[in-house]
Amino acid sequence: MTIIAPSVLSLDYSRFESQIRDLHISKAQWLHFDVMDGHFVPNLTFGPDILKAFRKASHLFMDVHLMVEDPDFFSDVFIDAGADMITFHSEALDDDFHRIMALIKKIKSRGVKAGLTVKPKTPVETLFPYVSEVDLFLIMSVEPGFGGQSFIHQSIEKISALRQLIDQSQSSALIEVDGGINSHTGSLCRQAGANVLVAGSYVFKDDIVAAVESLCQ
Ligand code: DX5
Ligand code: ZN
Question: Which of 13, 36, 44, 45 has the smallest CB count inside 10 Å?
């Protein structure tokens, strides 16, 4: 079954309580939390205290996507704040195998799931060496930094390539897709082998429960 992870980047913070209530009524199982530091991407979002507030208000699985220059430092900060999954960018560690492996191991040693991702222009093959190491691969289907962008269709080939590798390797890694997801692009991703769909602007546009439902089918 597909896991839906609404991105709270697009949540209407003037109506926090009712939006959380709707998320809990909906079939969403995860909340996707986009951490941006103004350096790795040209936007600033949440610090750990905001994650703590979500943790208090919700029982949902907290899926933290770090778009920061120093994922080693911030993984600890967000694990302390209640993250269930930490996904970081290979580029932030200069695609260095040893640094990436060390961070995956550190995250897991703290009892948290570890995910790895690359920006759309970085080849998907960069992720391949970690197929037996990570809990999740995140395919970015927009340039990270902002919600509301259009889905990059080449992402479908990346999902298929990863799906093939995961199945051949008998790995249990999940494939998550993030950016420009709606009922149409979500269904393409599911068919290509994705397990987790992140959606921001589509889910929070109007009827949260109906939007999440439409992504499950
Ligand atoms: C982009 C973020 C996404 C964003 C997706 O940098 O990683 O999670 O919230 O937003 P939509 O679904 O609006 O493309
Ligand atoms: Zn994200």
Answer: 13
pLDDT, one tens digit for every residue, the chain (217 residues): 999 999 999 999 999 999 999 999 999 999 999 999 999 999 999 999 999 999 999 999 999 999 999 999 999 999 999 999 999 999 999 999 999 999 999 999 999 999 999 999 999 999 999 999 999 999 999 999 999 999 999 999 999 999 999 999 999 999 999 999 999 999 999 999 999 999 999 999 999 999 999 999 7
> Measured in angstroms, how far is the CA atom of residue 106 from the centroid of ligand 2?
21
Q: Which atom of ligand 1 lies nearest, measured to the CA of 181?
A: 12
**Cα distances (Å, whole numbers) of residue 156 to 36, 118, 139, 162:** 25, 15, 9, 10
| Ligand 1 pocket residue status of 200, Cβ below 6 Å | yes
Joined together, the tokens standing for residue 9 give: 């980047």
| Cβ(9) – ligand 1 distance below 6 Å | yes
* Eight-class DSSP state of 33: E
C-alpha pair distances (Å), 13 with each of 47, 62, 100, 116, 204: 15, 18, 34, 28, 11
